[in-house]
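Dear colleagues,

As part of the handover before I leave the project, I'm documenting each prediction I ran so the next person doesn't have to rerun anything. This entry is a single chain, and its sequence is reproduced below.
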Amino acid sequence: MDNLDLLLIDGQIATFVAIVLFLLLFIFTGVKRVDEGRAKIIERLGRRHKVIRPGLNVIVPILDKVKTNDFVLETILDGTRMPLVSKAGISIAEHRMDPPVQKLMARDNSEINIDSVVYFRITDPIKIVYDVNDFAGSFESLIQTTLRQEVGKYDGDTIITARETLSDALKTTLLDASNSWGITVLRVEIEHIGFEEKVNKALSEAREEELLRRADLVAKKAEAEQQLLLAEAKRKADILEAEGEKQAIVLRAEGDFQAKKLEAEGAFLIQSREQEGKAKGYAAIATALKENPEAIVALEALKAQALVAESLGNSSNSMIIPAETAGLFGAMGSIMKAYETTKSQNPQLHSRTPETSKPASKRKVADE
C-alpha cells in the first residue's frame, strides 16, 4: 500500500469523523425539548425568530439559539412580584394579577376601596418579551387607570351594586389594550368594594333600618293578605250556604208538586173508573129497557111503592112491615135511582111512560 492509498483512507476517515461530529453537534444543539406548560424563544443571528412549544423542536445549529433568561417577566400576587420565566422556559399557563387595594374617588367625591383580580394567559411570548418593558408594572397601571375611570362614572350609592358592570368594563378595556402585549385576559373579578370604616358603619345601620322596615311591611302585607283570604273564604261559605238553602227549597217544592200531582192523578183515576162503572151500568139498564118497554110500567109501580113506604116511615102511625117487603123496597129504591138517572139521560123513556099507567089503588095510597 503506497502513500496515496494511505492518504485516501485517511481522507475518508476524516470525512466520516466530520460527519459523525456534525451529526452529534446537530443532535445536541439542533434538537430542543420543551416541557409541558412552557415555551421558549428562538433567536436567529441575534434577532427574534420563532417560539418553540412543548415537545421536541428542531433548530439550526450555530444560526439559531434559545434566548436565555436575560429578561424580566413577572406578575404581582398580594403585593409581591412573582417571575413567569425560569430555566425551563416561559410559563404559558393561566396566571393571576392581584394588585393592592386601590382607594378611588366616585362621582360624588366619596372614597371607595376596590380590590380587583385579573386572570390572564401568555399567548405570544415574543410580544410580551420584546414589546413590553416591565410587564407587571405596566399591567398594574392599566388596571388602576381603567378602574379609576369606571368608578368615576358612579355615585357612592350605586357603586356597591355595580360589581358585575365594573368587571365587564375592566375586562373589555384590558382586552383592547393587551392584544399587542401577547396575552389574553380570561376574566376579571372585583373581590371587594367598600368604604371607610365610619362610612361602612353608617351604611350598615341604614341597611339594618331598611331591612327592618321591609320586614315590617312584609308582615303587614302578610296580615292583610290573610284577612283578605278569610273574608273571601267567609263570602264563599255564605254563597254556598245560600245556594244550598235555595236548592233545598226547590227540591221541597218539586217534591210537593210531584206528590200532589200523583194524588190528583190517583183521584182522577178512581173517579174515572167509578164514572166508567156507572156509565156501563146505566148503559146496560137503558139497553134492557129499550128491548123490553113493558118493564117501565113495573118500574113506575115500584116507584109508587117506594113513595108509600116513605110516607109510612114519616107517619106517626107505626106499622110493621115484613122483612121481605123491606128488602123489596130497598131493591126498588136502587132500581128507581138508576132509572131516574137513565131517564134524565134518555128523555124519550119519560115520554113513553103515561101517568095513567099507575094503578088507581096505588095512587090512592100514595095520596093518603
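The longest helix spans residues 197-291. Residues 320-331, 348-368 have pLDDT under 50 and may be disordered.

All the best with the project,
I.
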